[in-house]
Each structure stands twice: as C-alpha cells, then as structure tokens.
C-alpha cells in the first residue's frame, strides 16, 4: 500500500516533470516568428506595460507578505510563516511566468496566423499550456517539498496550510487588483479616446491603450491563474488535512490527493499533446503499439482545419485528459488501498466540473436561448436589456447550485459509507474538489489561450495586417471567448468545493464538537457571512469607477501636454497610464482585501469559533450565487452585443446595439472584477480561518 | 399572574376595539367631499378597476385555498384546515377593506387638498389608518377566536399555525401577483400611450391608465398590507408555539405575545390620534389631567403647517406609539410574571425595526449621499447609472444585516439568560419580532397613506385642479415616498425575524434534536435554499415582461377597434385592461408561487427534516440580502431621477435625466415586484415547513 511519503514523492517528481515540459514549451514558443516592425513595437509596449505592472504589484505584495508572515510567526509558528511565504512566492512565480509568456505569445500568434488558423492556435495554446502546467507544477512542487521538510511532526499539515494562505493572498491581489485594473483601463481609455477625442478603439495614439491591453493579461491570465493556483493547492491541502484525522489508515488518505495531482500532470500533458502535436514529430510517427493507441485520439490539425474543428480539438484535449484521469485515479485508489468509493468521488468531482462548465457555456453563448432573449430585449431599450440580463444571470445559478449540491451529497454519502464518519464525508468533498481540478493543467491551458488570441487580434488590427489574417485572429478570439466562459465555470465550481473542504478542515482543526444551527451565535454568523459578498462586490464595483476616473485625468493631461500626440508625431507615455492603473488598482483593493482577511479573525475572536463557521457558510453560499450570477450576466450581455453585431435587430449602430452596449458595459465589472473576486473571497476567508483555527476560543459572548 | 387564556381574551377585546375604530374612521373618511364631476368620474373608473381586480383575484384564490385546505385536512387535521381558511379570509378581508377605502380616499384627498395641506393629510392618513388597524384587528381577532375554540387540546397551537399559512398564501398572491400587475400595467400603458401614440402620462384616453392607477393600490396598499398581516400573525404564532414548549411557565409565555399585540392596538390608536385629532374635538379640549398629558404630545396640524411639519407629525405618531409600547409592554411582562429580560427583548425588536427603517431612508432619500452618487453617475450615461445603483443597493445591505444580527444575538442571549434553554432564546427572537411589529397599526397607516396621496396627485392632474392644489398633492405624494421607504424597511426586517422565529418553531415541532452543520444533507440544503431567491426573482422579473406584453396588445387593439377613442369621443374599455393585467399577473405568478409551497415539501420528504432546516436558513439569508438590495437600489434609482428633476445636472430632458429614467425603469420590478415578493417567499417557506413539520422524516437518503 502506498503511504503518504511515497505518494508525495511521486507528486514531487511529476511536478519536476511538469517544469521540464514548461521549459521545453517556453523555448518553443519564444522561437516563433515575431512578425514585422510595427507588430514588434506594439508588442514591446505591452510587454513594457506588463513589466511596469508586475514590478509595482510585487513591491506592494512583498510588504504585505512580510507583514502577514511576521504576524503568523509571532502568533502561530515560524514554520507556518515559511510555508506562507513559499506559497506566495510559488503563486507569484507561476503568475509571472504565465504573463511573461502571454505578452510574448500574442504577437507571435498574430504572426503565425499569417500561415494559417492552425499555426496561430498552436502558438496561443502553447502559451496557455505554459500557464497551465506552471500553475500545477509550481503548486505540487512547493507543497511536496514543504511536506517532506516538515514531515514527522504531527503539526506538519497545519504548517502546510500556510502555503494555501500564501497562494490565497497573491490570488487576492491578482484577481481583485487585476480586475479593477483591467476595467479601469478599459473604461478610462474609452471615455477619453472614443468619446472625447473621437479616435477609434485600440488606436496607438491613446496613452491608455496599452494599459487596456495589459489589463487583459493582468485579469484573464495572471488573475485566473492565481485563482486556480489557490483552488488547486487548497483542495489538496484540505483533503490531506482531513485525511490526517481519519484514523488508522490516515497516511494513505493523506497521500491520495497528492497522487491524484501527480497523475493529473500526466493526463494534462497528454491533453496538451493532443492539440499541439505536429505531424513531423517522431512520437507521432512511431509504430510502437502503445504509442499508436496514444496517437489514435490526437486531432489532426492542419491548414484545412475549420473553426469548429479547432473548438473540437480543444474540447477533445480536455476529454482525453479526463478519460486518462478515470483510469489513473482508479490505479491511485487501488495503490493507496483506500475504499473504491473514493474513486467514485473523484469521478463525481470531474463530472460536476464539466457539468458546471457546460451550464456556463449554455447561458453565455449566443447560439442559445438565454443570450438571444437578452438581444431581443435590447430592441426595447437599455432598461429591458438590463432587466432581462439580470434575470438570465439569476436563472443561471440554478443548475450550478444543483450540480454542486448533488456532488456534495453524493461525496459525503460515499465517504460516509466507506469509513463511517462525518470526517470521511468531508474528506470526500475535498477529494471531489481535487478530482474536479485534476485536469487543471489542460483546462487552464484552454482558458489562458483566450487572452493571448484576444491580444493577437488587437495587434493584427493595430498593425494593419491583411484582412485574411485578421479574420483568422478574430476566429481564434471568438474561440477564446467560448473557452473563457467554460474556465469561469470551473473557477467558481472549484472555489465552492475548495471552500467547503477548507471549512471541514477548519471545523476539525478548531476542535468544534457539536456545531448546531441553534448555537446562539450561528444565525447571526450566517447572516453576516451572507452579507459580506454584497459588501465586497459593492466595494470592488465602486473601485472600478474611482480608478477609471484617475486614468481619465491622466489621458486628458497627456493629450494636453504632449505636443503632436493627436497628430501621431508625439509618443504617448504608456507607462504613466500603466502606473496609474496599477497604483489605483492596488490602492482601491486594499480595503476589500483587508476586509477578507480581518473579518474572519474578528468574528473568530469576538463571537467565537462556532460563529466563524456560520460566517464561512453564509459567505460561501451567497458568494457562490452572486459570483455565478454576475459572471454569467456579464458574459451573456457581452455575447448579446456580439450577436447583434452579426446583423441581428439592425446590427451595429442600431438602437438595439446601443442598448446592448449599455448591457455590455454594466457586465464588464460584473464579470471581470466583482464576480471573479468573490471566488477568492470565499476561499481566502476559509483558509484564514483554517490557519488560525487553533487560536480561536468560544468568543467573548459565552453563554 | 396572567395566563394564556386571560391574555388571549384581552387581545380579543382589543381586536374588537380596533374594529370599532375602523368603522368610525371609515364613516368619517367616506363622509368627506368627493370633489367635482370630473374627479368623481376618474375615481369611479379606478374603483371599477379595483373591483374588477378583486373579483378576479378572489375567484382564483378561492380555488387555491379550497385545494390546499383539502390537502391539509386529508394529510394533517381538519382543524388546521379550518384555521388555514380563516387566516386566508381574514387577510383577504383586511386587504379588501384597505383597498376599498384607498380607492375612495384618493379623490377625497384631492378634494380636501383644496382647503389646505393639513386637510389632505388627514384624509389620506385616515385611509391609511383604516388599513393599518384592520390588519392588526382582523389578525388578532382571527387568532384569538381560533385559539379559544381549539384550546384545551395539546395540539391547539399546531392547528393555529394554519392561520399563518392561510395569511401567507393570500400574501403571496397579493405581493407577487400585485407586484407583477402594477409593473405590467405601468410599462404597458407607457409603451403604447407615451411611445406609440404620443399622449401624455395619466391621460384618460389610454385604456391602460386606470389599470396603472389601480396597480398602485394593488401593490402598495393590498400587497404591503397582506405582507405585514402575515408577519404580524406569524410572529405571534411562532412566539406562542415556542412558548408552549418552555416548560412550567408555558401558559404565561404563550399569552405574552398576544398581550403585546393587545397593548399595541392601544399604542397605535394613540399614534393615529396624534395625526388625525382635530382641535374642535371634546377630547382635545378636556381638562382632565390624564387627558391633558395625553394631548400634550399631539401635533398641532393647522393650515399653516409646512411639509416638514407634516413629516414630523407622521414621525412623532410612530414615536409616540413606540413610547407607549415601552411602558405598556413592561406592564405586560410584569403581569404575565416572566423575566424582565423579555421586556428588553421587546425593546430590542422595536429599536431594530426603527433602525432598519432609518437605514432604508438614508439609502433611498435624495438628500443623502448614496442617491446623489447615483445622480452623479447619470452624467456618464445609463451604464454607470446601473453600476452605481447596484453598488448602492449592495452596500445598503450592510447595516440592516448587522442590526438584525445584533438583535438576534442579544435576544437569544437575553432569553437564554432568563430561562437557560435554546428554546427560550428562540422564543426571545420571536418576541423581538412581535415587538418590532407591535406598533404596526400606526406604522402601516403612515405607509398605506402614500399610494392614496399618489393617486390623489394623479386625479388632481387629470382633472386640471388649480396649480396650488396640485402643488399640495405633490407635496403629500413626496411625503408618501419617504414613508414608503421606511415601510419597506419594516416589512423586510420583520419578515426576517418572523422567518427565523418560524424556523425555530419548525425545529421544535419537527423534534430535531441535534442540528449539526455537518449533517450530510445540511450543506446541500443551505446551498439550494440560498439559490431559491435568485430563481424566484428571475421568474418574477421575467413575468413582468410577459404580462406587460399582453397589455400592449390589448391597448393597441382598443385604439384600432374603438371608434373615436383617440379623439376623446369613444370610451375606452378600462375593465378589459384591468382584466388582462389581473389574469396575466395571476397566471405568471402561479409557477413561482407554487414553487414556494412545493419546494419545502419536496426537500422535507426527500432529503429529510434536517435538510429542510438548512434550506430555510439558506433562503432566509440570501432572500433577506437580495430583498434589501433590490428594494433599496430601486428606491435609490427612483429618487436619483427625482433629484435630477429638481434641476440638477441639466434637469428634465437632459442626458443625465435620460440615464436616470433607465435606472428608474430597471428599479421598478426590483423594488415593486421581485424585492418585496422575497419577503413572502422566506416567510411562506418557513410556515409551510412548520405546518407540515410532524409529517417529515429523516428523508429517503438516510445514512
């Protein structure tokens, strides 16, 4: 039977394998053609902006991490502080790498698209794969090394929870700050450029245009990556922590989530291979019977591939990886010697993740009824557009909630049947989360591909590439919109399972014996918890407005003070706008961010550990709903506009289109700032509670 | 010591006293001048429309009540079915009376306003007082009579819960149906009348104009009345049911909420007297020292009274009643011989109710920052208007939640300290709800006054009364908007306390011993419960759109088929539009309404009674937040528009005003349909669970 250490070492090795792949793929992407002079200069500006953002952000982050690490070291243990720092660094590193390659792949994707749709896809997807595999590998590597170092003492897993807290803190900055940044730059650029100066979108004369392009990467690459880095790490940590209290066989239970992570790397690599493999590779032409089977399912992507074929290729890569997980996780369960029920639990997670992703796609795709109903409502003006979009967003919560509820119920039931305890049930919930995220390497690749294709389209537009190339980048971009919707579904679904798993781990760690709904502080805790996502969303939405206003002022200043800017002879100071967006975003996110860390601590110390459990339940439930609602309403408004732009209801410029633009603008902070930030809120609050679990008592209000 | 029966008999007598007052006030209001010919003919059309609505609605209701009563008689007990029918009839009766007088006071208010602001106020407030006192008296009378009939058997209180269920069912129709009705008529009238035909608002040629005016009464008088009828009845029932399980002294505990209701009638009558008293009354001129003190605080309302003086008069009437409650409830607590802690609990409820009302006013009044921030955002178009309004609505949830959480915490703590059990704590929560609603007679009067003044303004406008009179009715109307906001705060706050009290009663009645958060079905129950308000809101919002569409078709038909309608020589068929609005509203509310009744039953039977408790908690928490958010966002948008109409940011017709109109239109279904309907959803689900509590087992999924 495979015990904890053996499983962890396998995971460590797979983490290293992932990094080897990342290095190889990185070299491959960077060796691609960078296109002509104009393209390179635009790309350079975006890269410069991204560096400016990262250097500013990491300076603030360093201070934050140092302060929190000191607090942890002082009040809990230095080992936890070390794990916290490692988690922060690993997450930041993965985010840095993902963004580094994304802002270099955009121009290469545009150049490759000159040779065909399939070449563009390979470059952009390769970039996404680097992000996906870095997230998974950095996370596995960090956790396994810390586990092996601090192994032997009984508190080992308590220390390692610090890793999740560190990852969570970075995610907070990346998601909230990034979300504010991207929408502030977007709105700021539009308000002065399009409205006041009358220059087109993506015009290089606009000083905020680069900040806008940087924003896409900041929000959708770095933000999404950090978000899922955290879900991935925390679901494994929560499962391991719960496994540790599962009695006799606990070492096998601790090892299993790591082992699933390890086989997930293999499965994801196969999925990525299914998209990026080229016909002239040796491995593609091998006659070895195993490799023939291995190659049998690989999609043929050549110059004749249609858009639909490419979408199918992306989908099949996820399905291929999932199929491998089904087999590999059975082996993992057999090897660790735990009940076969846990294999079913992993499958439940896998199915639930794909189910939620499917629902998300249904509600946000313009080939389906919900988006069309919004487009129809656009005919009677912006008010009905907003009402119908809100109704669609609210309606779209139904199936994700039912899927999650059933997944939790079945997981708890399977765990309970296998090992007869509530803890086993909670362990199963955590394991379902691990299962949902096991193919993260490839699902994140299909997701992080999107913004690269989006940027490539912008570069093609700005550098006036031939019509045919721009059509191809547009096609790649629209493909990215579909995968982005799916990715958001995964991010939310996994956040909920992770938060609940962390809640279970917290309850175990805080040694709460009976957690009655009727405990005096429970109902107030739940109510306050349910309120926090509303407060948090209100803050982040207002923050976008404030930050955008500062950018408007800066853009106006540059147009006034830089000679020849409007005529195209003066060079705008892109970095200034980037700096202001960054600064504004980081400043505006301090209050909501601090709130996420401080409120659980206040409630835990003042109202006690039971109230804190109530708080977490309330926040998770209402945060889940609000996040799904806002993300899907935003996505649906966006695509209703795109649907009208295909010529429906009068097409571009019609009254219906104007109403749709209002919907889209309202949806921007919904789907790119407030909604996704809630993923972090619910996880961060849970992990803060878990890390500080041992410090909470029964509160000042004891009965 | 006062025992249950004595307290109940006192409450019965006070109920009768209330009805005597209602009869007297009704005679007084109806004897007022009805104005000129034109005014009377407009009023007659509104009255005709209201009758048409009521006759249709009550036909559907009778079928619904009969079916549910049969189910209750078959599966539970015939006594419960009787109580259910009585509750439904009592609520419907109060609603009928309130609406009957409201549609007759509107024209009399307009006529009285010719003689002065204060005369208009007295008539409109008198109409509100009839609504307020009928709700309180009918409820007390119904409950006490049933209590006395079914007294003696141990199940007596279980039977009487049927009264709350009956009231709840009527409330569902009144709120959801009324909410859909009023907004469908509003939108339908505008779309054809203003947009297609170019005739002004409130033009008598528009066949839907009467439906629109009827709608105001349907939603804001009958809907609000039924909503609070239910809160009032259910909070008393829940307290009594919980009191019954409080051991030795249980008879005193059962009696106390009835006694508070009884003294509340007295206090409310004093509050109403403070506004309506005229100087030539004998009682006003009495030299009896008690009556001199009694008169000392009565506001002098004469022809010189300013608008601010009138607002103060309304506020002082609520404060005067509250002050009396402080004294009377101390007597009640001393008479029943329970711990003084329960007196504090009543005060907590009273303070919490006023606190929530104050916050609601702050967030929706255009003299305060939140509404001004929305008006400012209107300058940059409809999108920023919607974003800022949503942010304000979300932000406005913070204090109502904190106030409620503290009220619950303190109540549980006080109850627990007094009688050392969790049930005592829950009893205290229910009692806080009773305390919050103890002054309902007068708070509802200030609230139901609003739509009467609104209608009076419409009648004054349509019948071209002198400028001076219209200014007065406008002033009375704006006063009504302020009190309406306060009333909405009370409705939501009391709904939450009532729902939690009913939850407590359900848990006791279902004999759930340990209700752990970690029970396998609890988390899925909470998640599904939290989702229901989103689903419900999505349905009711879509319903408004569908019903409005049917009215558009009918109005178009009448303009085509009735000769001379546009020229003013043909008479429009108002009743047809009223009928279609009614039918549409009742049809569209069937699915969401049925859902509210059926889902708790399904969850209770399939997932078991623990999951049902989780479901109720989830629904209450997320329903509370969504209701506050939608009501306040809607109110804030409405007043942001009004603020701009005072000349800010370009005033009427400016781009900012156009953006504000979009916000106001989005806010309409938020604040008048979906938001208030959630009050009913959370209470109805709780009371259905309580009524069927004994029938639920541990579900099909036992572990």
From TrEMBL, chains A, B:
The protein, known as: Putative K(+)-stimulated pyrophosphate-energized sodium pump
Instruction: Show the stretches that span the lipid bilayer.
Output: 6-24, 60-78, 84-103, 123-150, 156-174, 251-273, 317-335, 342-360, 391-414, 426-445, 489-508, 515-536, 589-608, 615-637, 680-701
- Note the subunit structure: Homodimer.
Name the species this protein comes from: Methylomagnum ishizawai
User: Is Transcription among this UniProt entry's keywords?
Assistant: no
**Record EC number:** 7.2.3.1
GO MF, one annotated term? potassium ion binding
Write out the catalysed reaction.
Na(+)(in) + diphosphate + H2O = Na(+)(out) + 2 phosphate + H(+)
Per UniProt, what is the membrane topology? Multi-pass membrane protein
Ranked from the top, the taxonomy reads: Bacteria, Pseudomonadati, Pseudomonadota, Gammaproteobacteria, Methylococcales
Sorted alphabetically, the Gene Ontology cellular component annotations on this record are: endomembrane system; plasma membrane
Give the family per the record.
Belongs to the H(+)-translocating pyrophosphatase (TC 3.A.10) family. K(+)-stimulated subfamily.
Cofactor requirements of the protein: Mg(2+)
What's the name of its gene?
hppA
Name the domain of life. Bacteria
Q: GO biological process: what's one of them? A: sodium ion transport
Give details on activation and inhibition.
Answer: Requires K(+) for maximal activity.
Q: Return the broad EC class.
A: translocase
């Amino acid at each position: 039977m495979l015990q904890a250490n053996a499983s962890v070492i396998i995971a460590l090795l797979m983490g290293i394998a992932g990094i080897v792949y990342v290095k190889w793929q990185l070299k491959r992407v960077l060796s691609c053609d960078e296109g002509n002079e104009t393209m390179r200069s635009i790309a350079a500006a975006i890269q410069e902006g991204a560096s400016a953002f990262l250097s500013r952000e990491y300076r603030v982050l360093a201070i934050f991490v140092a302060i929190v690490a000191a607090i942890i070291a002082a009040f809990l243990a230095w080992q936890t502080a070390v794990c916290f720092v490692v988690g922060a660094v690993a997450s930041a590193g993965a985010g840095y790498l993902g963004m580094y390659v994304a802002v270099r792949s955009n121009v290469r994707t545009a150049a490759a698209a000159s040779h065909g749709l399939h070449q563009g896809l390979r470059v952009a997807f390769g970039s996404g794969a680097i992000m996906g595999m870095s997230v998974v590998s950095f996370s596995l590597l960090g956790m396994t090394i810390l586990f092996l170092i601090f192994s032997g003492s009984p508190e080992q897993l308590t220390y390692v929870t610090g890793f999740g807290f560190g990852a969570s803190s970075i995610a907070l900055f990346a998601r909230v700050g990034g979300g504010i940044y991207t929408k502030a730059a977007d709105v700021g650029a539009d308000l002065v450029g399009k409205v006041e100066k009358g220059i087109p979108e993506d015009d290089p004369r606009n000083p905020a245009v680069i900040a806008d392009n940087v924003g896409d990467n900041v929000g959708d690459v770095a933000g999404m990556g950090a978000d899922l880095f955290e879900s991935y790490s925390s679901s494994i940590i929560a499962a391991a922590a719960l496994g540790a209290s599962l009695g006799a066989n606990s070492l096998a239970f601790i090892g299993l989530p790591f082992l699933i992570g390890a086989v997930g790397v293999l499965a994801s690599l196969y999925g990525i291979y299914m998209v990026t493999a080229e016909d002239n590779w040796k491995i593609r032409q091998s006659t070895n019977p195993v490799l023939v089977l291995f190659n049998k399912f690989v999609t043929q992507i050549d110059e004749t591939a249609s858009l639909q074929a490419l979408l199918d290729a992306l989908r099949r890569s996820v399905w291929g990886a999932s199929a491998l997980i089904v087999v590999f996780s059975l082996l993992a369960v057999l090897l660790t010697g735990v009940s076969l029920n846990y294999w079913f639990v992993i499958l439940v997670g896998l199915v639930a993740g794909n189910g939620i992703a499917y629902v998300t796609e249904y509600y946000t795709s313009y080939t389906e009824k919900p988006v069309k109903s919004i487009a129809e409502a656009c005919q009677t003006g912006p008010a009905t557009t907003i009402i119908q979009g809100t109704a669609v967003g609210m309606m779209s919560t139904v199936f994700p909630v039912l899927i999650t509820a059933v997944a939790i119920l079945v997981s708890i039931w399977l765990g309970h049947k296998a090992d007869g305890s509530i803890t086993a049930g909670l362990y199963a919930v955590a394991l379902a989360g691990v299962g949902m995220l096991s193919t993260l390497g490839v699902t994140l690749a299909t997701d992080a591909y999107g913004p690269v294709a989006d940027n490539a389209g912008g570069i093609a537009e700005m550098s006036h590439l031939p019509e045919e190339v721009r059509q191809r980048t547009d096609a790649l971009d629209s493909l990215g919109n579909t995968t982005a919707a799916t990715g958001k579904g995964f991010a939310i679904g996994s956040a909920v399972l992770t938060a609940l798993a962390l809640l279970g781990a917290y309850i175990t760690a805080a040694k709460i014996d009976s957690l009655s709904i009727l405990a005096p502080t429970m109902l107030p805790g739940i109510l306050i918890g349910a309120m926090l996502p509303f407060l948090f969303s209100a803050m982040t939405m207002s923050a976008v407005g404030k930050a955008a206003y500062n950018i408007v002022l800066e853009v106006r200043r540059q147009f006034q003070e830089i000679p020849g800017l409007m005529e195209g002879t003066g060079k705008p100071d892109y970095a200034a706008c980037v700096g202001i967006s960054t600064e504004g975003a980081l400043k505006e996110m301090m209050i909501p961010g601090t709130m996420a860390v401080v409120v659980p601590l206040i409630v835990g110390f003042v109202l006690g550990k039971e109230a804190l459990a109530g708080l977490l339940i309330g926040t998770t439930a209402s945060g889940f709903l609000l996040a799904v609602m806002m993300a899907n309403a935003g996505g649906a408004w966006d695509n209703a506009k795109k649907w009208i732009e295909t010529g429906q209801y009068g097409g571009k410029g019609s009254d219906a289109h104007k109403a749709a633009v209002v919907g889209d603008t309202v949806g921007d902070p919904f789907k790119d700032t407030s909604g996704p930030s809630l993923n972090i809120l619910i996880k961060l609050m849970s992990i803060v509670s878990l890390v500080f679990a041992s410090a909470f008592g029964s509160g000042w209000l004891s009965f």
